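Morning. Coffee machine broken again, so started the prediction first thing and wrote up yesterday's gels while waiting. Chain of 395 residues, entered below exactly as on the submission form.
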Amino acid sequence: MPRLLPLSLVFVLACSAPPVAPVDPLPFEEASPTAAPDPTKWGPYPVGVRTVTFEDTGRRKPDGTPRQLVTEIWYPAVQSTRGQPTVSYDIFSVFTPEQQAAIGPGTIGLLPTAAVRDAEPTRAHGKFPLVVFAHGQAAIRWQSTYYTVLLASHGYVVVSTDHEGGTLYDVVRGQLQNTAVGVETRPADVIFLLSRFERLKETDPLYGLLDYERIGVTGHSFGALTSLRVAAMDPRVKAIVPQAPVDANLAWLGLPLPVKLGIPVHLQAAHDDRTLPWDTNIDPTLLVMKDPYSLLDIVHGGHFTFSDLCGFDLAAIADKVKLDIPGADVRKVLEDGCGPTAPPASLAQPLITHFAIAFFNAQLKGSTGSLELMTQAKADALAGATGVAVLTSGP
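Came back before lunch.
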C-alpha cells in the first residue's frame, strides 16, 4: 500500500491542476461546419503579408531571363500581431521619376491595409485553404486589398502576383502587352504558383501552413477570365469567384468544348459595366455555365466597383502623364464604376466581400451556415435598399 501513495498523489495533483490554455486562442470561431462568422467583418485572425519574387525558369522572356512573378502573400498571423504597424501601398511609386515630377508629390494618397509586414504565421489552428487572386489588365497585385486582406483574416492564405506584361507598371512605361498574350501567360502564372506553393521548403515561413486539397481562384476583369480558364485547366481548383468577367466563351477559347468545370462558381458583375458590358459578357456566360452558380449583380455598379482603384483619381492623373491602354479611352475606362451614379465603396465593398467570402467559407471550409447567408434578403440588408444588388442562381 505505501508504494501506491506516490502514484495516488500524482493522480490527485493532475486532477486538480488548472486546464491548459489553448495556444494562440481565437476571439471567435472561424468558419467551419459549426460556425458562420459575418463575412463583411474582420475575421478571427490578424493578417501578415510577405512579398516574394518567384522565377519560372520553364518560361523565358525574349531577353532569355526567366519570367518573374512578384507576389503578395497575405496569411493568418498569431494574435500578438494585433496593434503592430500595418502596410500601406503606394501607387505613386509605380510611376517613373519623370512621371512623378509631372504628377506632383502628395497628389496620390496611400492605400492603407490592416496587414502587418512579415508577421509570424499562426500554426495553432491547422492548415488553411489557398486562394489565388488575379488582377485585371493594366492593374496591380494589390488592386483589391479590401477583399484579399479581409479574406486572409477569415483563415485563408491569399496569393496575388503581378502578371508581367499586363500590369500598371507596364502601362506607365508604354509596355502593356496585348490581351491575347495574357490569355496564355496568366493561367500559366496561376498554375505555376499552385505548384510552387506545393513545393515550399521547410525553411520557408509558410511551410506547413497550406491545405492543398482546398484551393480557390478569384480575380477581377482579366483576372476573372484567368479564374475561369484555370478552373477548366487545373483540377486542383475547387471553387472560383470571377468578378466583372469577360464572356466565358472567350475565357475558354482553345479548350475542349463544352467546358464543364465540375465545381461551384460565384459570379459577381455590374449591370452598368461599360468596359465589359453585361449583354455581351455576362448573358453569354450564363448560357454556357453548366455548373452550379450564384450571381451577384450590383445593378448600378461599373467595372472598377470591384477594385480599390476608385479611391484614387487616376483619370485626372491620365491628363498629366501618358497612360496607354490600346483601344481604350483611358479616362472613360478609369471612370467606369467610379462616377457619381455608381454605388460608393462603403456600400459596394461589403456586398462584394459578404458574398465572396461566404461562398469560399461554404465551399472550402464546409460552413453550411455561410451558404445560408447568401440570400437576396441579406443583399437588401447590406445595401440598405432593394434593387441595388440582385442575387440569382443557376444549374
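Residues 183 and 377 are 37 Å apart (CA to CA). Going to sketch it on the whiteboard this afternoon.
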